[in-house]
Write a structure and sequence with these properties.
The protein has one domain. The protein is built from 6 helices and 14 strands. The strands form 3 sheets. Strands 1, 2, 3, 4, 5, 6, 8, 9, 12 and 13 form a 10-stranded mixed sheet that branches. A hairpin with a 2-residue loop joins β2 and β3. α3 packs parallel to α4 and α5 crosses α6. The longest helix is centred in the last third of the chain and has 15 residues.
Length: 243
């Protein structure tokens, strides 16, 4: 069974004291005590934000015409919840621009919630999103990153073993010198294999860093989410251009 630490992190990482952690192994510290939380897939009060084709949003059954209204609705709801109930699922059509989805993820983060996806059938499918930036990002390959306001600064992306997947254009995944495209036969299996191998070498057990063009479709992130989950990991650190 894949590690489920990040399932607890759906909400715990929404607190400032935990958000600053990079996920790097620290053998000098005592193990973090595991806690029991509600499985979000079985939670009747789970929160789901949908990005609508019309340009609006939906929080569960409530329509929101813009991001400001969505953020306000989320804050009102989260203020009434315990700190371990701050996971928010996000849904979007596959053809939705990643840049538009990122605006929504940023708003969810700004409201004090932990964005997660996809809304699947089991907790094994869940992938937690972190939003990160670095003042001196990698320059190769060039990627038109989406902007973000509520991202956390992450210095570990420059670590020699940091595992980074770049999506500079639609359907193209660059991992080091390896190029995988959606036109490749069994491209998802190839991604899974690369993720498993890369994370084994990595000092950073928590994150797969993702540098995705804001013009790419959200389906490219969906493919990567499935690959990360099937590889036995639970977290994507989405790299943004800090604004």
């Amino acid at each position: 069974m894949k590690r489920i630490l990040a399932i607890a992190a759906l909400t715990l990482l929404a607190s400032p004291s935990v958000m600053g952690q990079t996920g790097k192994k620290d053998e000098g510290r005592a193990p973090i005590k595991r806690i029991e939380i509600i499985n979000p897939m079985e939670d009747p009060e789970r929160l789901v934000v949908s990005v609508l084709p019309s340009g609006g949003f939906r929080l569960n059954e409530r329509e929101c015409t813009n991001l400001e209204e969505l953020t306000g609705q989320l804050r009102d709801t989260l203020d009434k919840r315990k700190p371990d109930r701050r996971g928010v699922f996000i849904q979007a059509q596959p053809e939705t621009r990643y840049g538009e989805v990122m605006k929504t993820l940023d708003a969810i983060r700004g409201a004090g919630a932990m964005p997660i996806g996809p809304l699947g059938k089991t907790s094994e499918e869940l992938v937690k999103f972190e939003l990160v930036y670095h003042s001196n990002p990698p320059v190769s390959p060039t990627v038109n990153l989406p902007p973000g306001i509520h991202a956390s600064q992450d210095f570990e992306i420059h670590g020699k073993n940091a595992f980074i997947v770049s999506i500079p254009e639609t359907g193209v995944y660059l991992i080091g010198k390896t190029k995988i495209t959606s036109a490749d036969k069994n491209h998802e299996r190839l991604l899974i294999a690369q993720i498993r191998e890369g994370m084994k070498r990595s000092e950073y057990w928590l994150y797969t860093y993702v540098r995705c063009s804001q013009d790419a479709p959200y389906s490219d992130i969906n493919v990567l989410m499935r690959a990360v989950s099937k590889a036995g990991y639970e977290s994507l650190a989405l790299v943004v251009e800090k604004r």
